[in-house]
Amino acid sequence: MNGELRRRIWALAWPAILANISSTLVNLVDMIMVGQLGSLAIASVGLGGQFSWFMMPVMFAVSTGTLALVARFVGAKDFEMAERVLEQGIYLAFLTSIPVLFLGLVWGDDALRIMGASQDVINLGYSYIRIFFLFYPINFMGFAAYSALRGAGDTKTPMMLGILTNATNVILNYLLIFGKFGFPRMEVRGAALASGISITIAFMVGLVLFLRGHLVLKLKLNLLFDVDIIKRILKIGIPATIERALFSFYNFIYISIVTRFGTIALAAHQVGLRVESMAYMPAFGFNVATSALVGQSLGAKKPEEAEKVVYESLKMVSLFMGIMAVVLIAFPKYLVMPFITRSDPNYAEVLHLAAIYLLIVGISEVPLGWIFVLGGALRGAGDTKSPMYVTAVSKLLFRILPAYIFGFGISLWIIHIKGMGVIAAWLAMSLETFTSAAMFWWLFKRGKWKSIKV
Predict the structure, then answer these.
(1) Domain count of the fold of the chain
(2) Which of 109, 382, 413, 453 is the 20 to 30 Å CA partner of 343?
(3) pLDDT digits (tens, 9 = 90+) for 69-107
(4) Domain that residue 48 falls in
């Protein structure tokens, strides 16, 4: 039984892992290409991308509700209702993307200023934001549609569309950042435009597949709103929105703290973050698999099977994340070298700090995997309130406050060593990972998620 269950989990997890590895590799290539423009460009694109990521809570809310409902209906063998959820999820994603688009266009530079960036970083970062945010409606709709497919047990199609996005992005990055083969040299703005165009191309391909009935779910564009389904999506999605909004808000504060340690610290943080993002790709795959299988098991009235899914996913993610932890801890400098140009006058300092970042986060990779799996299980069951509570408490008490108190306290009053402030902030981030994992485990063991009504 366990062997068969592991195969089911892996069948859903590996395409999601591969898709995200592909996406992360492209982000790394982006950073390598942008890195050739210098540390200022790295900091600007990194901070601009960070602000874009802060806008994800709304998209996450729609996708979470869509995935959970589709998984329940597929588990109950009601594919007609699953397809209606897909359609309504796309409409809702489009509507919610519009205010986000205007927010980025109008207040993007103010956001970077609030985050403590220098004027040079603000100018470059805002030029990135103004272009990338134009593509947010397509990005939102694609995210909702791909989440519906994952809820239905199809993780291969999102993988293929993700690879198409990423391959296109790499080519366009080369052409538009550096101005090759007759294309204009747009540098930072070229990176943003390349991302937007590649997202659009993949979405259009996916839309054709949906409309022609080539996928597990068929899309019927009736252009009518189903208020009942939208309410059910939002019932699950609104707590997820609050959770991700809190998550983004706390990360906004956290990155603002890091930014105040200087451009070198910020560049090191962005480089380290990009490298680490490769390490937690397995965790994301198991998050997707667990969410889908837990939702389908509960839809089929099999809560015991849902619980077994979680236990097996935890075993598997611990193995994968343990391997990633060893790599991060054993080879930190070699992992960050490709992202920093040797001609940069700050090369040695950025390299040193980025390597320390990887050493610190390496110790918390396994509990990070548990957060992904347990959080995915709760959300797949439709319990989005519990993750909201964990985020509200853990990030404030165990990341933000320690990062501020020890980051500025150690660097200014206790140990006068260059870089100690941001290192203390990174230690706080690792501490928060352990506490969040413990909270999620306690919520899972309580078992209330098995009786959630969606």
Answers:
(1) 1
(2) 109
(3) 999 999 999 999 999 999 999 999 999 999 989 988 888
(4) 2-451
